[in-house]
């Protein structure tokens, strides 16, 4: 369970890391499923509904960058959402009624796992209020050398930055065009089974994994049930099928939050990695991938 100090830290800094959210048995079962999914990427030639592929992927040498919506791919990825620690944290940080917005598994394989440029999740999915966060469940031990998620503390209280390039959404901030000191970024590290919780408006990103250890991060985006999306609403039935606990509502809570719409849509659709391929200037270096 998390303490009042940890809750206060999240409110002030915009993130908190909590140890031992899930245990070794569930981690091992998740790993088996990921290994099977990676093996099934053999023969896949392009991004699809399940796989986002590394630029150096080939059908005979499969390199998966992301598994999309893992909670829909295998039940094992829904189990973590029932962890009592995780539910306790969500109740304390978001409230009694919580809906899953989405999920993704960033694989960040040893030696070549791609970087993610600086961004705010809020730029992708603005809602009527910002009681929304992403959980980053660490499936491996995460240390400074294997591409941890980096956060800029306190930025969740600031503006929504421009995530456009050439007049279209591109899912990344231009690091040369904003007044932020990226050297102040903090790495979210921990042993496997730990999780970071970061506010939807917090600026974050991560470097390429050039180490020889994997850094798999399973991300769940969770929103207060009365936060209604301003983009990509499907149907009420689908929306409410994602309730994690508590009750849904048809009365959105509207608060004074800075919004920029992710429109016109990104030229390269499919994932943040694809969106960000259109960014003007990159912050994170991409080293030639080892074979
Ligand atoms: O995998 C990471 O380190 C960053 C994840 C992230 O911010 C994202 O995929 O939106």
Structural features, described:
The protein is α+β, with helices and mostly antiparallel strands. It has a single domain, classed as Sandwich (Jelly Rolls). Helix content is 19%, strand content 21%. It contains 7 helices and 14 strands. The protein has helices spanning 4-13, 24-40, 70-73, 76-79, 84-93, 236-240, 272-276, and strands spanning 15-18, 51-53, 64-68, 98-106, 116-119, 132-138, 149-151, 164-165, 168-169, 186-188, 195-199, 204-206, 217-224, 243-245. Strands 1, 2, 3, 4, 6, 11, 13 and 14 form an 8-stranded antiparallel β-sheet that branches. A 4-stranded antiparallel β-sheet has the order 5-12-7-10. It has a two-stranded antiparallel sheet with strand order 8-9. Strand 8 (164-165) and strand 9 (168-169) form a beta hairpin. The chain starts with a helix and ends in a 15-residue tail after the last helix.
Structural topology:
Layout: H1 4-13, E1 15-18, H2 24-40, E2 51-53, E3 64-68, H3 70-73, H4 76-79, H5 84-93, E4 98-106, E5 116-119, E6 132-138, E7 149-151, E8 164-165, E9 168-169, E10 186-188, E11 195-199, E12 204-206, E13 217-224, H6 236-240, E14 243-245, H7 272-276
2-oxoglutaric acid is lined by residues 104, 106, 116, 149, 204, 206, 217, 219, 272.
